[in-house]
Amino acid sequence: MKCTILSIGDELLIGQTLNTNSHWMSQKMNEIGIDVIHHISLSDDEKDIVKCLDNALYTSNVVLITGGLGPTSDDITKDVLNRYFGGKLIFNEAAHQNIEDIYKLRNRDITEEAKQMSFVPDNCIVIQNSLGTAPGMLFRKDEKVIVSMPGVPYEMKAMITNSVIPYLQENFQLPTIIHKSILTAGVGETVLAENLKEFEKNKDARIKLAYLPNVGKVRLRLTIKGENKDELEAIISQAKNNVVNAISEYIYGFDEDSFEEKIGELLIEKKLTIGTAESCTGGYIAHLITSVSGSSTYFKGSIVSYANEIKEDLLHVKKETLEEFGAVSEQTVSEMLTGALLQLKVDVVIAVSGVSGPNGGTAEKPVGTVFIGIATNDKQFIKKLSFTNNRERNIQLTGVVSLVMLRKFLMNQ
Questions:
Q1: Where is the domain boundary, 192, 225, 254?
Q2: Alpha-carbon torsion 246, 252, 253, 256, what sign?
Q3: CA-CA distance, 410 to 245, in Å (whole number)?
Q4: I want to staple 337 with a disulfide (CB 3.0 to 4.6 A). Which of 188, 222, 351, 413 is the partner?
Q5: What is the pTM of this model?
Q6: CB atoms closer than 10 angstroms to residue 119
Q7: Which segments within 205-323 are labelled E, that is strand?
């Protein structure tokens, strides 16, 4: 079965509101074996709604609609759907009672506009709103299902979970979809694809492999769909093992594992504490490490030495080093590592210095030049890297690559 999601509201189109509803609904549809093929955001305009609904019903078995069910003049979805399906608005006692109860709970008198939400098309199944005032509506047309729900996320989620999904599962024979994710870091999708050529050539034809790159990381998603769940589980598990065998050196986790959490587990396993000395990242690496609950077990602190005088005063970087080699240099990062180990009294440190941009680059050290170092009291490793000309991306890349280097450093300890 295929699904189209229509999100109605001018606020979505002008960028005033982020459309998180479509993302969440897609996940839920996928979990029950329904393929979402379109996300469409459209205006509060009858012609637009009708045109998009026509197209959605042509391509999909299920159409999920959010937005436009409130009591204000720009909320036109209910009236448009009523005309589209040839219905007549009738009073719904349960919807009215729900609205009255909510207004009483808020110590407010029910308004005439709110009362209008008690009227629904006579040819729909009413979905009562347990968390708000506007009821949802479910229509059937030519064995297709159209569901209209409020745009308020928590109201929509309750309707999907408690009403829409049970209805679809009871009325349609849905397939099983299984996903397995393999998480990699420090390698690009081109290298991964090269290593997985043999796997892709020999894999079961029902297995789909997707490459989903992010900053410094790539998620590999294996997907299989069919009727026999046990058989599908066996096939995808074998496929996962084959992928792992081909690219094991790049893998840090599976499914919903967090890279930062896996780093923390390594530090705990090796009974090591860590700190950072950061220049160009301004504390971003410390932020990544401390995004994990319980990171105080291993993370002790950070020195954000953005200015040269802080490098000198707190990290004991020699003035002569800064003058001769510059703040962005292997020599400076080496001394930052030594100073951080002394000041923070930790087992391992990360130190970074670079040109994030957009200004500050030179012919010798253009924007995107970064030195990243990892050290313990008896070992240092420093690497020079060249990233992009975008400041935000350079900071993100420096953070992720620092943790990738830290992971390799710890694995070799």
A1: 254
A2: negative
A3: 21
A4: 351
A5: 0.79
A6: 18
A7: 208-214, 217-226, 251-254, 274-278, 299-304
Positive or negative, the CA dihedral 321, 323, 327, 330 is negative
Range of the domain at 185: 176-254
Tokens 């705990």 -> residue:
268
The rounded distance, in Å, linking the Cα atoms of 297 and 249 is: 27
Quick check: 61 and 33 in contact, CB under 8 A?
Answer: no
Phi/psi of residue 4, each to 5°?
-115, 135
Whether 107 and 184 share a structural domain? no
Q: Are 119 and 91 in contact (CB under 8 A)?
A: yes
**Tens-digit pLDDT profile for residues 132-168:** 999 999 999 989 999 999 999 999 999 999 999 999 9
Q: Exposed/middle/buried for 28, CB within 10 Å: 0-12, 13-18, 19+?
A: middle
Four-residue CA torsion sign, 261, 262, 267, 270: positive
**Total length of the chain:** 413
DSSP state letters, 160-200: IIIIIHHHHHHHS-PPEEEEEEEEEESS-HHHHHHHTHHHH
Residue in this structure with the two tokens 């407010």, named with its chain if needed: 108
In this structure, the answer to whether residues 264 and 186 fall within a common structural domain is no
**Residue written as tokens 């808020």?**
106
Determine phi and psi for 96, rounding to 5 degrees: -65, -45
Contacts of 265 (CB under 8 A, 6+ apart): none
Q: Tell me how many domains the chain contains.
A: 3
Same domain, 152 and 118: yes
Cβ–Cβ under 8 Å, residues 21 and 11 = no
CA–CA separation, 1 and 371 (whole Å): 51
pLDDT in tens, 339-379: 999 999 999 999 999 999 999 999 999 999 999 999 999 99
Q: 217-226 and 208-214 as β-strands: parallel, antiparallel, unpaired?
A: antiparallel
DSSP secondary structure code for residue 377 in this structure? T
- Let me know whether 334 and 407 are in one domain: yes
Position 399, amino acid: G
